[in-house]
Structure formats: structure tokens, C-alpha cells
Amino acid sequence: MVSTTVAPSGTHWTETTSQGILAVVSTLEPPPSHDDLRAMLARHGRHVHRQPGGVRADLSRRDLKGLKLRNLQLREIKLSGASLVKATIASCDLSFADLFCCDLTQAVLTDSILHRADLRGARLRLANLRGADLSDTNLSAGRLQTVGKPEELLRTTLVGAKLDNANLQRAQLAGASMVGLKARSVDLAGADLSGVDLAFADLEGANLSGSRLDGASLVGAKLRDASLDGAQLTRTNLMGADLTGTRLRNANTSGSFVATRIEHLPKAFQDAYLQHLLWFHTEGRDGVRMVAHGIDLSGLDLTGLDLACADMSGANLSRATLIGARLLAANLTGARMIEADLRGGCFLGTDLSKADLTDANLEEADLSPLPLVNLATGESTGNSLPTNLAGAILRRALLTDANLTDAKLEGADLSGADLTGCLMPEREPA
Is the pTM of this model over 0.70? Predict the structure, then answer.
């Protein structure tokens, strides 16, 4: 299926190299007609297969917003400087394609092959490349940029994509989702990976020297023989990551660098926990949600664990240490958490109804509602899931500076609790 959408032109581009601006390029050309595009792609197919009458398609600097292409042979196509904003080019072969400085903002490239494509300077903000093959692709900095700050690959979806040997030097990937990324020997030197989700990614032999990974998740990632020399790793979660042979010379691991160990925990729990992380980070496509009714983890150090959405109703967590643990939307109904250390824990939308939190330390814990988002669009639904403490026992609990905004507290026992600085639910007017 081929369809085009005519949009007003007028975007000015400037071609930039390490030597500076070379030339000002004209505004975007209008899109070809439906029939012309069909004929152009037919000739391109003959070009790819080296058949008579074949001509390489050149759509450089064309306005192709909203274009829809599926299951097509587009190998070697020229799209340099083109605008493919909100376009769909799914399950297509774009190997060796010229996408230099192409604007792919919010484009869908799922399951497409971009092996050795030239994506230098491409704008991929909010693009979806789930399952795409970008092995040996060049996504480095040199760019044809619009006036203003380029957004590059911000919040791009690269879940399960393949980027082996790709060049992403100094790429801007802040907030991108790369769960399960396959990127052996990828070059990410100097890249901005702040807040990126690289859980269970295969980064063996990768070059991450000088990169920014502040607040990133590398849970269960393979970093064997990777270089993180000079990298910024504050608040980075490396739980369960394979760091065999990893180089960390001059890396900044100050602040709340998270590398929580789980080796001391029961083997069955370790296995279930890693499966749960995989399940959560892949939105249920892989792994298995943790269902551990009545599990006994009393007295254990569970600092920093990510148990979001786990079902641990009736669990025994008395005297356990869960400082900074992430338990948002978890089911802890009827759990025993007597004298548990829950300081700074994240309990957004957690069900703690009828849980026993006697003498627990919930200092600076966040028990406010969990905002609900549409998984398909990432946009807020305007609804939220409140934390449920109905019928919970919080006798003598330390709730200093905790956030209980809009929490359900019907029937909760707060006798003797320290509520200094605690944000409490607003009472209904009489």
C-alpha cells in the first residue's frame, strides 16, 4: 500500500560538517503523486534486482509526511534530508539506504532492515524501531540540521532492535527505550543515554566511553568486555548486569549508583526476580510476572529491588530492608512488614490493604497515586491508581515526610505513628 499526504513545505536546512556550515539547502520539495511514487518504486525494485529499466529511487529532501509503505524492497533508496514525520515504513528492506539527516520524528520502522543504512544526523524523536535491524548502521553526529536544537533520537523506541557494530557516537538517546537491544560492539562513545532503559540489552564489547548513563537502567544487561571509561553512571541501575571484563577507568559512579546484589537471596527468588524484571521491562512479552504469595523474605536485604507489579500478597517482609525499593502497583495485601525499613521506597498505586506495618520505617516513602498512561501512545489517561492502605496496621510507624496524598486509609490504624511533615489525603468536607 502506498499513500502520500501533501503538507506545506518551508523547512530550511543547513548542511553541517566538522568544518562548519557548507551550504544552505532549498526548502522541501513536494511529494510525488501516488502514481508517480508507485512507478518510481517499481523502477527501484528493478534497480535492486539489477533488471533492465531499473533506476535507483531518489526522494531526497521530499516532503513525505505520513507516507505509508509496508513489505517493500527499498534497499539503497535515497531519502537524504527528506521529511518522513509520522510515516510508516514497516517490514521494509532499507539496507544501504541513504537516510542522511532524514526527519523520522514519530515514524514507525518496526521490523524493518536498516543494515548499513546511513542515518547520520537523522531525527528519530519518538520513532518506533521495535524489532528493526540496524546492524552496522551509521547514526553518528554529522548532520543536516534545521534551525534550532536538533532532537535526534530522544525517546526513540528500539525495543528488541539489532545494532551490532553500529556507529552512534555522540548520539542523543535520552529517555529512549532499548529493552533487549542487541548491540554487540556498538560504538556509543560520548552518547547521551540519560534515563535510557537498556534492561537485558546485549552490549558485549560495546564502546560506551565518555557516555552519559545517569539514571539509566542496565538491569540484566550483558556488558562483558565493554568500555565504560569516563562514563557518567550516577543513579545507574546495574543490577544483575554481567560486568566481566568491563572497563570503568575514570567512570563517575558517585551519588546513588545502584548495583544491588541479589546473590545472597534464595536461589528460587533470584530466578523469579530476574524473570519478573524481564516481564516488566518487555511489557509482558517475555519473562514471567512474580507471583509469590506468602513468600518469607523476613530479615533480608532487598535494598533497591524493583518489584513493580509483583504479586506478593501475604508475604513476610518483617525486619527486611527495602530502602529505595520500587514496589509501584505491587500487590502486598495482608503482608507482614513489621519493623521493615522502607525509607525512600516507591509505593505508587501499591495495594497494602490489611498489611501489618507496625513499627515500620516509611520515612520519605512515596505512597501517592500512580498516574495511568496509554501504553500505545505514552500519553496520560488523566486517571490514577491510589495507594491502598485500607485496614492496614501502621501503629508507631515512622512516616516522616512521607507522601500519602489521596491514599486510601479507611480503617487504617495510625495510633502512635509519627506523621511529622507527612502529606495526608484531604478530608471530605462535612
Answer: no
